[in-house]
Amino acid sequence: MNETPNQPVPDRRAPTLLNRLLDLWEITLYQVFRRLPIDLAPTLSRRSTVRNIREQRPWVVERARANLKRHRPEASDAQIETWVNNFLDNLGRQVGEVATVGRQHAAGRIEFVQPVSVRERWNRRPILAIAVHTGNWEVMAEAFTLAGLSVAIIPIEWESRGQDWILADLRQRNSMRLFPKDHRGLRAMLREMQEGGIFSIFVDEVRDGKLMGPLFGRAPHMDGNLGVAARLARRFNAPVALCYVTRTPNNHFRVFFGDPIDLPPDTKNPLDDVRFLNDLIEPVILERLDQWFFLDDEF
């Protein structure tokens, strides 16, 4: 589950003493949440996160509402507000649920859409697993382990160094292999593909405040992770497999690992490959807008 390495993060917290203490506080909360009953941490994080967004970041709500109206102009105001509330609820719960990844299956919370063995369906290698940020996307790490898959990623930098540490710990606990976020990681990624491994990359993303993918009717471009994925798949003749998580009632999760799909063999223009990948992910996101992490971002 990779986002392009060295991607700039405008909101990156400066390494001040206060922010280092805040990093330590976030890591401490994560360690505490890991030991709480599985539903308690998400409940606590939901309350505090939603309140913080509504009071300190009202633009998140405003942009989410505007984007929902843009994507679903036929919806009533009441339905739009329901989706906004669902979006905030998903964000809030995800904060606490990160600490519970690795315990979800034992609690009976993970369902595979296609119960047939993923390893049997993914027997052609290398494979590029293209993922999107829906539901609690970190649950995919646990699901990959359950499926017996060894998956490599290059993680991005998040808002804080504490968050970087938390997500690295979570993913390594769930047997994901993390490559460095520099030229060494890029070489390792290329080697992974050359040796027939599985490399995962998130193809919905925001850079410098701009939504790079999905396209949502805009012209295809090579600047984002859709372009990166298209180049990798074409260079190594690797099929792509769509992966995503949907939140279901009672805080259960439905995980989808799609069948490997080859890029069209007769494509000459790389932008057509980008459009092909976009057409795989965009319907998934449009169907689950209220569970999509980037709903509040401009495009």
Automatic annotation (TrEMBL):
Subcellular localization(s) per the UniProt record: Cell inner membrane
Record keywords: Acyltransferase, Cell inner membrane, Cell membrane, Membrane, Transferase
Keyword Cell membrane: yes
Annotated InterPro entries: LipA_acyltrans
Protein name, per record: Lysophospholipid acyltransferase family protein
Organism annotation: Sediminicoccus rosea
Main location: membrane
Pfam families noted in UniProt: Lip_A_acyltrans (PF03279)
Alphabetized GO MF terms: acyltransferase activity
PANTHER family: LIPID A BIOSYNTHESIS LAUROYL ACYLTRANSFERASE (PTHR30606), PHOSPHATIDYLINOSITOL MANNOSIDE ACYLTRANSFERASE (PTHR30606:SF10)
This protein's record includes keyword Electron transport: no
